[in-house]
Amino acid sequence: MEKRIFNGIPWYDKDGNTVNAHGACIVQEEGKYYLFGEYKTDDVNKYIGFSCYSTENFTDWQFEGFALPPLKEGILGPGRIGERVKVVKSKADGTYVMLMHTDDLKYCDPCIGLAMGRRLDEEFTFRGPLLFKGEPIRFWDMGTFTDEDGTVYLLTHEGNIYRLNETCTEAEELVAEGIAPGGESPAMLKKDGIYYWMLSNKTSWERNDNYYFTAADLHGPWEYRGLFCPEGSLTYNSQCSFVFEYQGEQGKVPVYMGDRWSYPRQASAATLVLLPLEIAGRTMRISQYRPVWSPDTLETYGMEAENSARFCSNVKGESIRIDFEGTQIALFGSADSHGGYGDLEIADEKGRCVHKTSLDFYSGVLDEGLRYLSPVLTAGKYRVKLTVSGANSVCVTKNGTRYGSDDCYVYISGWSSVG
Fold first, then answer.
1. 105: domain range?
2. Are residues 265 and 334 in the same domain?
3. What residues contact 331, with CB distance under 8 A and at least 6 apart?
4. pLDDT (tens digit, 9 = 90+) per residue, 357-408?
5. C-alpha Rg value of the chain to the nearest Å
6. CATH value at residue 93
7. pLDDT recorded at residue 285
8. Is the C or the N end of the chain the one with fewer CB within 10 Å?
9. How much is the pTM?
10. Residues 311 and 293 grouped into a single domain
11. Domain boundary at 245, 267, 301, which?
12. How far apart are CA 260 and CA 243, in angstroms?
């Protein structure tokens, strides 16, 4: 089966539940891809656990459970935050090591945490803070990079790089410091002897134009190279999180992974974006957005509505109803700076609810196209009801800056049934 990646819409596991994994990473092992990420709720931003999903084709996802559930006490206990989970393999013995940002609910007590595991599909054991010179590393936004020789590095906001020891249980060297003041959400790759280091600007949950640096040595010098997506695209409405290599028909393809945060409805409405990176010399870019694409062939697929269904409303409680027959339904529409949340429900012929979720119609730049593809249902007749919630995605930073939507519109232009 050809693998296809659907961008910017909710993914579902084999039980029909939304894939809930953000600030994530992907680890490949024996033909499977394991996705680790933050398991979010729609009501409060606190640590629920780090989730693990597996897939062979990026379409069918298996929930493997919580790779690291909350602790009874300590830096991942009650009233704490756990974010930016990354899983690496130790150079010493192949043990899997999990690193993450831990904090209090006000983001005033940051610390990099450490957990160990024998298998990717089993629960990890928390070990405590990651130390450098005997002290916890007190940064928050973080990422990891594994070099060609297996050496693992911790990346932090503001542009710092720490080299870890062979067991990945301690930082041994501060390789680079303060390369990117104001930068967060670091991710890195290496190709043809050049390191590419991408970061996001600090705009809370809002998306922005991410940028990158290059160097021939991790110690530097690092050269600022500008944006890697078209200016004003807000990195195709995403924030960089991780890069992994995919072995496709075109050879090894570096794949960008970014988050489309949707605060506060992170569990139901936040989505992921995966796109191939194009690298030539010291230039890295993502030249086009691919709503649906094959990592094997890099072919982009178009999806268009087969049926018209015009709906545009910001009135709380107003809804659109669509009857369809098949196993799936795709909804098309647009998202912009005036968009809000739509509450979606699918009912069968007997009126029983078989699926519920939220859709986010907010985007800092106009985004038209596929907004939703349902989980695969038993073949039959169904009714979709999409209701204006009256709520929208809004966040306020510590300094009082407001980001997000200025209204709560829901926009639908058409739909297609599948199966």
1. 5-301
2. no
3. 322, 359, 370, 371, 372, 373, 384, 386, 412, 414, 415
4. 999 999 999 999 999 999 999 999 999 999 999 999 999 887 889 999 999 9
5. 21
6. 2.115.10.20
7. 98
8. N
9. 0.96
10. no
11. 301
12. 16
